[in-house]
Design brief:
The protein is an alpha/beta fold. The chain contains ten helices and 14 strands. The chain binds S-adenosyl-L-homocysteine and N,N-dimethyl-L-histidine.
Length: 323
C-alpha cells in the first residue's frame, strides 16, 4: 500500500477506535496498539532496559542460547516474518543462524513506522539477509506476505509475549487466523511470559523511575497531538495491578479529578469522574503446560519449549502439519 494512503486510513481508524473505546461503559478503554507512536516505541525500548522488566532479557537469552537448536528443526532457507517486530534486537540471533545456511528474506510487520526504522538500523547490515518492512496490523501484514511468497517454507516469529496483550479468547482466534494463513511445513516461534510471584511481576509494570508510567501516559498525549484533544495529562496517574483470576497485569490511567475532555479529531466529548480509569493494556501470563494444549486447539503441533533459568519465560516452537 502507498505510504500516504496507509497514513490517511490509519488516522481515520485511530479516530473511530478512540471514539468507540472511550464510549464503553462501565469501563472506558483504549487499544494497546496505539501505545506505539514514535515516542511510545522509544519508551518501550527503554522499558526493555529496566532492571525490573526482566522479560526482554529472558527472551533474548533463550533465543541466543538456543538459536542453533531452534533453527536446526526448520527447513533450509525459509522466509522469516515477524509480528510486532519492534526494533528486532532479539531476532538477530535467529537471522544469523539461518543465514549460515543460505539467503534469508525477512519481513518485519509492525504498526509503528518508528519501530520498523529501528529494525532496519538494527538488522540492515546482516550478511545474506534481505529486509522488506511491512507497516500495518498483524493479519494485514501477514496476508500480504502470504500473497507474495512462492514455494519457500516460512518461520513466523511472535516474540516478547506480545500474544499476552490479547484477551485469552481473542488470542485463540488470532492464532487460528495465523494458522489459516500458513502452509504445512511452516513454523511459529511464540514467546510467552510465565506466571511468577507478585513482587517480581508488578514492578516490571510499575517501575520506580516512571518509564512505564510515561509509556502509558503518552497514549493520552498522542491523542492530544494527533486528534487535537485536551486531556489534562498531568491529572492522570499510571496504575498497574495483577488480576489473579485472569493471570494478567492490567494497566490503567486514572483521572485524579473530574474532567471533561474534548477530542475534535474524533468528533467526541466525554466526562471522566474523579478516580475513574481508562484501561489501556492487559499482559496475560501463562503456565508452561497450557502452551502445547493451546497449540493443539489452534491447529498447530508443539515440537519444542525452551525456558529461561532466571526469569520464567518460554519460547515455543509450533509446526503446521499436513492435514
Ligand atoms: N517483538 C518486540 C517488540 C514488542 S512491543 C519485542 O519482543 O521486544 C510490541 C510491538 O508490536 C510494537 O513494536 C508495536 O508497534 C507492535 N504492535 C502492537 N500492536 C500491533 C498490531 N495490532 N499490529 C501490528 N503491530 C502491532
Ligand atoms: C509488548 N508487550 C508484550 C509488553 C508487555 O509486557 O505486555 C508491553 C509492555 N507494557 C508495559 N510494559 C511493557
Amino acid at each position: 500500500m502507498q505510504a500516504q494512503a496507509h497514513d490517511a486510513r490509519a488516522a481515520l481508524e485511530f479516530a473511530s477506535d478512540v471514539r468507540r473505546d472511550l464510549s464503553k461503559t462501565p469501563q472506558r478503554e483504549l487499544h494497546s496498539k496505539y501505545l506505539y507512536d514514535a515516542i511510545g516505541s522509544a519508551l518501550f525500548e527503554v522499558i526493555t532496559l529496566l532492571p525490573e522488566y526482566g522479560l526482554t532479557r529472558a527472551d533474548e537469552r533463550v533465543i541466543r542460547d538456543n538459536a542453533d537448536e531452534i533453527t536446526a528443526r526448520l527447513p533450509v532457507a525459509p522466509i522469516v516474518a515477524e509480528l510486532g517486530s519492534g526494533s528486532g534486537r532479539k531476532t538477530r540471533w535467529l537471522l544469523e543462524a539461518l543465514s549460515q545456511r543460505g539467503y534469508v528474506l525477512y519481513y518485519p510487520i509492525d504498526v509503528s513506522s518508528a519501530a520498523l526504522h529501528a529494525c532496519r538500523n538494527e538488522l540492515g547490515t546482516l550478511d545474506s539477509v534481505h529486509i522488506v518492512e511491512m507497516q500495518g496490523a498483524y493479519i494485514e501484514g501477514l496476508s500480504e506476505v502470504a500473497l507474495r511468497r512462492s514455494g519457500e517454507p516460512m518461520l513466523l516469529l511472535f516474540l516478547g509475549s506480545t500474544i499476552g496483550n490479547f484477551e485469552r479468547g481473542p488470542a485463540e482466534l488470532f492464532l487460528r487466523e495465523i494458522h489459516a494463513l500458513l502452509r504445512p511445513g511452516d513454523a511459529l516461534l511464540l514467546g510467552t511470559d510465565l506466571v511468577k510471584p507478585l513482587p517480581q511481576i508488578l514492578p516490571a509494570y510499575d517501575d520506580p523511575t516512571g518509564v512505564t508510567a510515561a509509556f502509558n501516559l503518552n497514549l493520552l498525549a498522542r491523542i492530544n497531538r494527533e486528534l487535537a484533544a485536551d486531556f489534562n495529562v498531568r491529572q492522570f496517574r499510571h496504575v498497574a495491578s495483577y488480576n489473579r483470576a485472569e493471570q494478567r497485569v492490567e494497566m490503567h490511567l486514572r483521572s485524579e479529578v473530574k474532567q471533561t475532555v474534548r477530542i475534535p479529531g474524533a468528533d467526541f466529548e466525554f466526562t471522566l469522574e474523579a478516580g475513574e480509569t481508562i484501561w489501556t493494556e492487559s499482559s496475560h501470563k501463562f503456565v508452561l503446560e497450557e502452551l502445547p494444549a493451546l497449540a493443539h486447539r489452534t491447529g498447530f503441533t508443539s515440537v519444542g519449549q525452551w525456558v529461561d533459568r532466571e526469569w520464567p519465560f518460554t519460547e515455543n516452537l509450533w509446526l503446521v502439519e499436513s492435514p
